Amino acid sequence: MDPALINFKVLYVLTQLCGLTMIVLVATWIGQHFGGLAGTSNPGVEFNWHPLFMTIGFIYLYGNSILIYRGFRTTRKKTLKLTHAGIHMGAFILTVIALKTVFDSHNLANPPIPNMYSLHSWLGLSAVIVFSLQYVAGFVAFLAPGLRENYRIAMMPLHIYFGLFGFVLAIASALMGITEKAIFAIKTPAYSTLPPAGVLANVIGVMYVVFGALVVYLATEPSYKRKPIPEDTALLNSSSVNE
Amino acid sequence: MDPALINFKVLYVLTQLCGLTMIVLVATWIGQHFGGLAGTSNPGVEFNWHPLFMTIGFIYLYGNSILIYRGFRTTRKKTLKLTHAGIHMGAFILTVIALKTVFDSHNLANPPIPNMYSLHSWLGLSAVIVFSLQYVAGFVAFLAPGLRENYRIAMMPLHIYFGLFGFVLAIASALMGITEKAIFAIKTPAYSTLPPAGVLANVIGVMYVVFGALVVYLATEPSYKRKPIPEDTALLNSSSVNE
């Protein structure tokens, strides 16, 4: 086996462990320290869906959707594209629910909390918008039929750049979000005395960074790039005949 | 001229304008809203050196040092390496001063504020450590004589990856720092009502992201990569004879 691929496999498994740990830690954080999950009748606790679903959807699924071209290198391209779009759709749905719960937790609070005032909200929403525009552009350019091959080739570097940009911006927004929640909600004892809830907040932030760094590395290292397999062309030709 | 280089020049000028605007806005923020600059006799205001020098050193100079290989593409390699190390040394000195002033502002406060409890402090210090290790490794691998060429070639992708990783982590840390300062210090009127100090905080955060996104794009886009010039080899040979 190509020695680069052995390194890749080790790092890929590490990335998954890191991502799953990150989700478990967020679930533990909100479960142990902030009252778990609730519906609209308890807006302060309903908020907790926000970090949980953003972590699962907008960080873990987003990262994994980027990585499927590397992790499943012997699967044919068309299946990978559909899976990429499918996982991203899952990420988008969880992200929209996560946005709804945070707006609920502001609007239904007594008194209501203003929306969209923090840097976290500005950059987080920017990341969602970048992600959504990327989805539409990616669908038109690479999944829908009809676009000429030279346009597809020209768009690919931009698709990769803005995909990774949105992912890194999502992580930066999550770091600001964890910071906000820790300052607002870790009061007795205070965040500044590093109680368990504060240490856990910081460890979650570190996991976000490690997961993000691994995903970007695996996605950009040239020796890990997927090489076209014979089925890609063969099936492309037969399917274009069949369509 | 290569059409890619025309795009490059436009984006390079935009990056500089964005970077300078970012510094001016941080200076305005601390000058207009938080009392300007002071020494150890006024720890609360001495703090203000921290965002100012981190923005100039750990973001603007760090980014520009990365970019000199692209911006000054007709300068010979050895001069660029020395300039790269020199600008990074300037960035490091400003960063160390910025760290000293934040520790002062905690330790000399009455009562003292605990150090190193926030996610901002954990990730910010990690970015400084990554930067410092990179500096030592880069010096040994690419400036000091003696390392064999095949080691240099093997280390270059890691040097580039960890250089960009440290830069992006510095920006993420700055975003958390702005978030902290806005929550702690924008009280009357509150940050949640988006007063001028709050809007300015958010705009500074947006500028950090735009500057970072431009630097990473300019540094990673393959068509902007510097090509070796004849002097690189000629002067390398003559200098190795002269040394």
Layout of strands and helices, then pairs:
2 copies of one chain form a homodimer.
Chain A: H1 3-33, H2 43-46, H3 49-71, H4 77-107, H5 119-143, H6 149-185, H7 196-220, H8 230-242
Helix pairs in contact in A: 1-3, 1-7, 3-4, 3-6, 3-7, 4-5, 5-6, 6-7
Cofactor (chains A, B): heme b
Domain Cytochrome b561 (chains A, B): 14-220
Enzyme class (chains A, B): oxidoreductase
Describe the structure.
The structure is a homodimer of 243-residue chains. The first copy, chain A, is mainly α and 243 residues long. The first copy, chain A, has one domain: Four Helix Bundle (Hemerythrin (Met), subunit A) (Up-down Bundle), CATH 1.20.120. The first copy, chain A, contains eight helices and no strands. Chain A has helices spanning 3-33, 43-46, 49-71, 77-107, 119-143, 149-185, 196-220, 230-242. Chain A is globular. The interface between A and B is large, with 38 and 38 residues.
